[in-house]
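In the laboratory, one determines a bound structure by crystallizing the protein with its ligand and collecting diffraction data. In a computational setting the workflow is compressed into a single prediction: the sequence and the ligand go in, and a structural description comes out. We illustrate the idea with nickel (II) ion.
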Amino acid sequence: MATRKIVKIGDETLRKVCRPQEKFDLRLHVLLKDMADTMYKAEGVGLAAPQVGILRRIAVVDVTEDHSGLKELINPEILESSGTQTGREGCLSVPERQGVVTRPMKVKVRFQDRHGNWMRLETEGFEARAICHELDHLDGVLYVDKMDRELTEEEIEGEIPEDKQQN
Ligand code: NI
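The predicted complex, in structure-token form:
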């Protein structure tokens, strides 16, 4: 297992617009493996390449507890989104903070897999939230830029009304 150092808020790397990934080679496969390892070790549900200092349009997402739902998204684009969900959100690049963010409830995404094949994915709820969050990273956007409010330390530990909201 190889993990990489996670870039933290304040570093300009997180504010750049990433370039498309053009090569689907071993180097990409190593990066994808390292990104998944780094995400799992940090107990995150998503990680974008700029968070490990690579300015390419690549993200990994896995919202399952048993690490069975890994999605590798290369050059992803949101084709359609619908509905809204308002809930708590954090980021491995923004340690010990959380905010309330409104996102689409459902998204339809187009992306390339590790071999360069174009794929489509339709998802909703927490996975849709995670995907939107990671795609923002590829354009230099952090959740703190669009949060409705920042949670207090107490709220991070406890419950907030939004936790119960379904849509
Ligand atoms: Ni993030």
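The mean pLDDT is 97. Keep in mind that any predicted model is a hypothesis to be tested, not a measurement.
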